[in-house]
Structures are given as C-alpha cells and as structure tokens.
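Sample intake sheet
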Amino acid sequence: MVAKLTYFAMSGIGDPIRLLLSYSNIEFEDIRIGKGEDWQKLKPTLKLPYLPMLEMDGKTHFQTFAICRYLARKAGLNGSSEEEGLAIDATVDTLVDMLKKTVLDYFRPDSEERSKLLKTSLEVTIPFYLNVFEKQLEENNGYLVAGKFTWADIVALTLVFYISGIFKVDILANFPKLKEHRQKISELPGIKEWLEKRPADPEDYKPLFF
C-alpha cells in the first residue's frame, strides 16, 4: 500500500518527512491542500486539527518530528546509541527554535516593530543559530551529529531552504561549512531526486504549523 502524506501546498515542516520518505525509497502520494476551503473541509475530520499527516501501513500519524524520528529509525538515521539519539533530538529542537524565532515575525502585519524584528532576525538571531551549527559541523566531520549522516541533517537542509525562501536571501552566505553541508546532503540519493521535482512554494505561503 502506497503511503500518503497530507500537508499544505508548501515546503515548511512537511519537507523533512517528504525527504525522509524519498531517501528511504518509500513510495508515497504527496497530497498538497490549499489553506482555504480545502483545509476547512479537511480539518474537522482529523484526529488532531493540524498537518502534516502520514498514512502508512494502515495507520495514521501526526506530529512532524515524531514522524521523522519513526522514519529515521527505520532508515538507520537516528544514531547508534541513546546518547546519539539525544544529540540528534537536541539539534532538531534547536533548528526548530531558530525557525520559530524568525519565521513567525516575518508574517506579522507591516509595522515599525515588524521591521525591527526582521532586522534582528537577519542580523542577530539567525547568525547566532547558524554559528552554533557551523561549529557542530566542524566538530562532527561535516555532519551535525556523531560524525555521520542523521535525520538532523535532513531537517537542517529543509529548514534552511524554507527560511531562505521566506526572507529571499541565502542565509548561509557567510557560513562556508553550512554551505558545503547543504550541497552534500542535497546530492544524496533520494534527496536529490526529490529536490529536483518538488513544486515551488507559493509567494504567499505562511507558517500554519505553530
């Protein structure tokens, strides 16, 4: 039975799951819905009123990073010890912190406060987090955790693409190790194929997931 992933017509936090499925050679139907009428019709039918939702092996799953962790275990990308698993989870949590502290401000109504917040995001908040990840890459042989490819690397790739797309700037311009990491992970089997065929995000996309 082909798996089904339902999410909005955007990358956002649906893409880590899409990339994990593609990397794992798990065939899936990529169901993308609109944020208006489509979502309002679907929402009351769900166990939990948010997306993404993965239907796989006769079961329905919610919560992005719980799904990612499940798929990562199946693919051998969740570390080889409890300590490595903890380090991966901590890295993913930090990536999500960066996302929350920057993207939500972008979609505030236009105001002087918004302009100040965006300036802080681009000049202070994002560089702070990227410096943390740059150091991790230096300490882990070009990967974020344990000197090897894990699902944290996939989350980093997708969130960097997402944030850069929203702010319309390459947030990695001054971070050479992260740029090398982005290129390396983008070329992996399954991931490369998905990135080449995935639809572009719409201009008006907004984070509906926090």
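Comment: The radius of gyration is 17 Å. The helical segments are 15-23, 37-42, 64-75, 82-106, 112-139, 151-167, 176-186, 191-197.
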